[in-house]
Amino acid sequence: MTTASETVAPAKAGVHAEQIWAWLAEISDPEIPVISIVDLGIVRDVQMAADGACTVTITPTYSGCPAMQVIADAITNALQAHGLQDVRLQNQLSPAWTTDWMSEEGKAKLKGYGIAPPAQQVIDISGLHAGAAVSRRAQPRLTVACPNCGSTRTEITSQFGSTPCKALYKCLDCREPFDYFKCH
Amino acid sequence: MQTKVNYLLRLGDNALILSQQLCQLCGKGPALEEDMALTNVALDLLGQTRLWYEYAGELEGAGRDEDKLAYHRDAHDFKNCLLLEQPNGNYADTMVRQFFFDAWHYFLIVGLTRSSDVRISAIAEKSLKEVTYHLRRSGDLIVRLGDGTDVSHAKTQAAVNDLWMYSGEVFAYDAVDEAMVAEGVAPAAADLRAQWLAHVAEIFAEATLTMPPADAWMQSGGKQGRHSEHLGYILAEMQFLQRAYPGATW
Prior knowledge:
Number of domains of chain A: 2
Protein name (chain A): Phenylacetate-CoA oxygenase subunit PaaJ
Low-confidence stretches of chain A: 1-11, 124-131
Structural class of chain B: mainly alpha
Number of strands of chain B: 0
Shape of chain B: globular
Low-confidence stretches of chain B: none
Pfam families (chain A): FeS_assembly_P, Zn_ribbon_PaaD
InterPro entries (chain B): Aromatic_CoA_ox/epox (IPR052703), Ferritin-like (IPR012347), Ferritin-like_SF (IPR009078), PaaA_PaaC (IPR007814), PaaC (IPR011882)
Order of helices and strands of chain B: HHHHHHHHHHH
Oligomer: heterodimer
Protein name (chain B): Phenylacetate-CoA oxygenase subunit PaaC
Number of helices of chain A: 4
Distance between the termini of chain B: 32 Å
Shape of chain A: elongated
Helix content of chain B: 55-70%
CATH topology of chain B: Ferritin
Radius of gyration of chain A: 20 Å
Helix content of chain A: 10-25%
InterPro entries (chain A): Fe-S_Maturation_MIP18, FSCA_dom_sf, MIP18-like, PaaD-like, Zn_ribbon_PaaD
């Protein structure tokens, strides 16, 4: 309801991209609400055209991630609520999203939420081509710290968890089961 | 252009049919972890299907989007390999089918990351980490089943023997595949087959499974739209809603 005392000025052409980034940083990931879509590395680029059109480039985490449509709608709704009329979304596949793009702040928030963050930098894609990536003998031995007690005496119980981006672990010290955000 | 559309439909159809088969196990997996894994793999494959169909539909330019391609084609229009439409059977059957597919899919996707078509290489780059994870998981399961109990070993060996004749179709290139190789779009069959055989041999050795002869007679026809009776049942379930209520949307 607009009243005479309405003080929020509608944003129009001239809004800086930094402002858009700040607004986007307020949008939560629908699956893991403590982390924003900017922390997660889903937003790749923001462009403001002279005519006021705003183009946001996003990249999917996993090809089949059902959250992507929800995220795209959330971006459009949020920016329109801030007064941007012309919001365009662009989907970018390459370079493929990697957990390396997750911010340190995002990793800390994940841990606070009870999800162990990715335990290492993802190896260069070209390293996967050697075949070592799929050999059972060359499987990476990860040290995943328990987000509850910090112990590194943990073991995997399932290679997939509640979403494609997570695996299930359990802590051998505090005995808590927990989600681990896979290196990807 | 039609050749590339056909090639993209084959990629999408393989992923979609396997995804649909795995979805049938949702809530019925032999263990909770397996149930989650199968459905997550199905989800990855469905996402990849959408990317292939979206591109195929754009290239074709006939107004067919991903939903039309998935729900409004009959069995003879599907170009998936026969391996993917084989029944889920017991868990050894499901995992051997998955392992044969994952091993081919991984080496194919690696090859497609170097495709001369930038859209295809981008989709392959997006999919590579997913299919790598799938192959690690199914290879691990094959070792656990093959080198497990007498019963699991026997069932896994039986599944290998039954499904082996469906493992060669992906390497049997026809004019569509060869045209894609010539354009630098797709990797050559001989390279993929050598990599696939070496990987399967490595995993089977560890799984104490006997590998059937590489030169055994192989089934074919799926890529050209000649399918087994199984595909019709899969499509009947998958396409029911759009057949009963054409154009229904959320």
